[in-house]
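Query structure, 225 tokens:
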């Protein structure tokens, strides 16, 4: 069965063009013209991925993203933000809130399709069966579940992947570029600042345990060995 993509875009001409290109690439497409309709469609259709415009009437893209990530049923749903905003702080904000990817307008249809395929491939890949255990931390990749001292952690998909990467090899130093490549894929357009912001957010959620996530000055990050 073809993957279902929900296209959320208020400009009908853009939405229709994206939908036609996705259908030509073999995807089933659902459409929404605003944030409220988008949330209704997600619940009724249960898409495999959402293309979400930032600037929407009523609930904007970030409001929709925030609602999705706060709902356990859709917290891991891949979301690609489509927007004319290209400043670094906007990219960081979207990623910190849990966006899977970020594409600025205007964009190449080939690039969009390639990003979608890469994200869906990662989702279809068989997850590691073995749990990752480190100190009082237990990560269950197959369920995307994280527990610290028996209490469940509420992590975004990116935060879970970052924590799993570092906790699996305590003491090993990863550069920012390696972190992006291992958790997002090669050539993913994320700045060093975006990685730093994600680390800060993860440390905040880990509390005192977050002190184990160490910065290696001039290199990157590691989990204390």
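Result returned for the query:
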């Amino acid at each position: 069965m073809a993957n279902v993509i929900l296209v959320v875009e208020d400009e009908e001409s853009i939405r229709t063009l994206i939908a036609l290109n996705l259908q030509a690439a073999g995807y089933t497409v659902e459409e929404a013209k605003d944030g409220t309709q988008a949330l209704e469609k997600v619940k009724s259709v249960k898409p495999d991925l959402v293309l979400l415009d930032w600037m929407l009437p009523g609930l904007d893209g970030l409001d929709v993203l925030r609602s999705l990530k706060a709902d356990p049923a859709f917290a891991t749903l891949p979301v690609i933000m489509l927007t004319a905003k290209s400043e670094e702080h906007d990219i960081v904000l979207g990623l910190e809130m849990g966006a899977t990817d970020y594409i600025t307008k205007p964009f190449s249809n080939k690039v969009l399709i390639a990003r979608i395929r890469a994200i869906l491939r990662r989702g279809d890949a068989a997850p590691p069966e073995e749990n990752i255990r480190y100190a009082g931390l237990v990560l269950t990749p197959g369920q995307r579940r994280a527990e610290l001292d028996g209490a469940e952690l509420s992590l975004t998909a990116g935060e879970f992947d970052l924590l799993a990467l570092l906790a699996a090899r305590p003491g090993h130093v990863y550069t920012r570029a390696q972190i992006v490549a291992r958790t997002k894929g090669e050539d993913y357009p994320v700045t060093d600042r975006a990685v730093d912001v994600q680390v800060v957010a993860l440390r905040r959620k880990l509390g005192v345990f977050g002190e184990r996530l160490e910065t290696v000055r001039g290199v990157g990050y590691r989990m204390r060995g």
